[in-house]
Amino acid sequence: MTNPINETGRKLTLAYYVRRRNGVPLGAAGSLRNMLHRSLGAGTFAEFWRYWNPIFGYYLGRYVNAPLKHWLPPALSLVITFVVCGALHDAVGSAVRGSAVFLFTPWFFFMGLAVVIGQATGLNYAGFDWPVRALINISYVGSCLLLAFAINSIILY
Asked: Is 0.70 topped by the overall pTM?
């Protein structure tokens, strides 16, 4: 969830942003494969999120993270951006289900914390082979989901 601004300070277009993240144009064949390969094979959890769902990342970066960074420290802005993303997922889940869903917000909160902690500690596993990096990234996502289920069961039951 990075700010979609290029090196010259100009706002990037969605098409350019997606091409830069996926290596192929928006909607092109191979886009999903590239996203999965790049995100799962990332050497940090922050890098995982740079490649995961670039369309959503573009809008979150532009309309949530960038404005927040004007008023808040970058780490806090990032965590809040993850919480907003989770809340949007919960809203969609609630609409589809027809009743309140509160799973994605805490899940994304924990993933945002994991990104910030990983950046603060300099945790980097880029030296491992792709399958190991993928396992580590999946473990991050899964561990945060387990924490969200635990919080969910405490709060809602």
From this structure: yes
